[in-house]
Amino acid sequence: MTLTGTAPAGPRQRFDAMISGEERIEPRDWMPDDYRATLIRQIAQHAHSEIIGMQPEGNWITRAPSLKRKAVLIAKVQDEAGHGLYLYSAAETLGVDRAELLDLLHEGRQRYSSIFNYPTPTWADVGAIGWLVDGAAITNQVPLCRCSYGPYARAMVRICKEESFHQRQGFEILHVLARGTPRQRAMAQDAVDRWYWPSLMMFGPPDSESAHSGKSMAWRIKRYSNDDLRQRFVDIIAEQVRALGLTLPDPDLAWNAERGHYDFGAVDWAEFTAVLKGDGPCNRQRIEHRRAAHADGAWVREAARAHAAKQADRAAAREAAR
Ligand code: FAQ
Asked: Where does the signal peptide begin and end (predicted)?
C-alpha cells in the first residue's frame, strides 16, 4: 500500500492508465502480448505494402512521358522505399527482425495491401494511384500519427507529409490529361474508373466484419473505424473529382444533406476477399517479383554485413590499443 492507501499499480494498470491518459507507449514500456502482436501485424503489413507498392508505378519509370515526369516518379517510388524502411525499423522496436518479416511476406504468411494487386496498363494509372491510392493512404494514416505506440506514430508524421506531395503529383497528372486530347481525357477517366473501387477497399472490410478494429480502437492504435475513414475519403474525392472534370464510376454517389455526407454504392466485397486470398489480377506477379528482387539483393546484404563486421573489428582493435 502507498501512503495514500492505494495499491501500487501493476504493469497492466499502468499500461491501461497510459492508454486512457493519451500517453505514448514506448519500446521499453511493459505492454500486453496481444497489443505487441497487433502492432507487429499492422506495422509489418504496412511496411510490406510500401515496398510492394513500388512495383505498379516502378513499371512506368522507363516510360514516363518527359524527363520531368520521370524525375518526379523516381523520387516518389524512392519515397515509398523509405517509408518501408521507417516502418520496418518501427516494427523492430517491438522485438522482431526485419529479415524475419520479409521471410513471412515471401512465404505468404503476412499480408500487404490489396490495392497493389491491380495492373498499371497506362500512364494515367500513375495519376490515379497518386490521387486515389495515396489519397486513401493519407486519410487512413493521418489518424495513425496519434497512434498510442510512439515509434509508429512518429514514423507516420513524416510519411504523411511525403504522401501528401504524392497525392498532389497524381492529381496534377490527371488534371493535365483531363484537359488534353480526347484520347488523353478518356485515358484519365478509364484509370479513375479502374482504381476507384479498389481504393475504397484499402480501408479494410466493413466494420461488422473487421476482426481487429474493436481491440485496436480500445488500444488507440486505430482512432476511427474502417467505415468511418472510407466515408471520409469518399466525401473528399467526390468534391475533388469535379475540379478534375472527371466522374467517379458510382451511379449511387449522391450528397445526403441529412447525414452531411455522400452516399455511395455497395463495394464488391467478394472481389476484396478474392484478392486477399491471392486471386487478384497481379498477386502472383507481385510476390514473384519481390522474391526475385530479394534474391538478387543477397550480395548487397552480405557486403553490408561484411562491412559492419570489419568496422566492428577495427573499433575493437582501437579500443584494445588504448
Ligand atoms: N488489404 O480487422 P481488419 C500505401 C486484412 S500504404 C489487405 O479491419 P485492421 C502507400 C487485415 O490485415 C497502404 N488486407 O484489420 C503507398 C486482417 O487480416 P488478418 C497500406 C487487408 O488491421 C501508396 C483482415 O483483413 N496502409 O498505400 C486490407 O484492423 C502508393 C481483417 O481486417 C496500411 O497498412 C487490405 N486493404 O484494419 C505505397 C495502413 N484490409 O491479419 C505505394 C495501416 C484489411 O486478420 C504507392 N493499416 N485487411 O489475416 C491499417 O490501418 C489497418 O491495418 C487496416 C485494416 C485499416 C488496413
From this structure: none
